[in-house]
């Protein structure tokens, strides 16, 4: 069957599975009283979100995992690798959400527990990429050069993975924000993968097959995000929780790892990175100077407390992400 048709069908199937799963699971989450607790020191407009079902990342996981394999080729290594990456971090998020909601531990996993679990998951993923997939390079944006990292590839990949997962997690604070940015990045990766498949098919059919499978995985992520936005856009009927934000951060990183494009992630996903940077600046400034730089961190809450409506902030982040992804595409074309 035609490659492009397979990709489009994967998007549609993932959308359908996620949409149906949402219709089934959201009422279950409501009955289980798996509702979000809203901090009273944040934007007052968020108080109406109290009790909105969370852990909705489970909904996206069903769509992503179920549809990633449907049109995958014979060599499933890249697909299995990507799904393992997503599930490993989703499980950490699920534990964190579960402790918050059902064990009534307000902060979920303790900081050291979360760090240890993320390090273990990242080490497993990095070793799979290095030893199983045989990856050890990173593409330098705009240069056309590949850095051969050797054994240094493992700590490098671990750092990128943990940084990306936590950046997406910190960005997940407004209705549709993290989902929308992930969708835009996924569509951009789809374009890159399509070009990679077309270019590689002439020279190395093996690479074309691997990229084809990554295309189907990325299409599954995109389709799931589109469906989830139907329920997560303002006013949100469900939140993804750490289950979802960890999974999406891992999914985007898997896309980067598979194509040696890890260094494109902080460019196209800069709005995620910006959230993490704002938190680091805020915490560092308060500890060193006793003063805060922002009204509230992450940065999107700073804009809200400055008078911007939630939908305005989300729209601004979407536009900025589109421009950043266009920049990423330009860097990719320049390097071809």
TrEMBL record:
Keywords: Cell cycle, Cell division, Cell membrane, Cell shape, Cell wall biogenesis/degradation, Magnesium, Membrane, Metal-binding, Peptidoglycan synthesis, Transferase, Transmembrane, Transmembrane helix. CDD domains: GT_MraY. It is an enzyme of class 2 (transferase). Coiled coil: none annotated. Signal peptide: none annotated. One of its GO terms (cellular component) is plasma membrane. This is Phospho-N-acetylmuramoyl-pentapeptide-transferase. InterPro entries: Glycosyl_transferase_4, PNAcMuramoyl-5peptid_Trfase, PNAcMuramoyl-5peptid_Trfase_CS. Its cofactor is Mg(2+). The lineage of its organism: Bacteria, Bacillati, Bacillota, Clostridia, Christensenellales. It catalyses: UDP-N-acetyl-alpha-D-muramoyl-L-alanyl-gamma-D-glutamyl-meso-2,6-diaminopimeloyl-D-alanyl-D-alanine + di-trans,octa-cis-undecaprenyl phosphate = di-trans,octa-cis-undecaprenyl diphospho-N-acetyl-alpha-D-muramoyl-L-alanyl-D-glutamyl-meso-2,6-diaminopimeloyl-D-alanyl-D-alanine + UMP. The chain crosses the membrane at residues 6-29, 54-72, 78-95, 115-133, 153-171, 183-202, 214-231, 263-286, 314-334. It is found in: Cell membrane; Membrane. It comes from Christensenella hongkongensis.
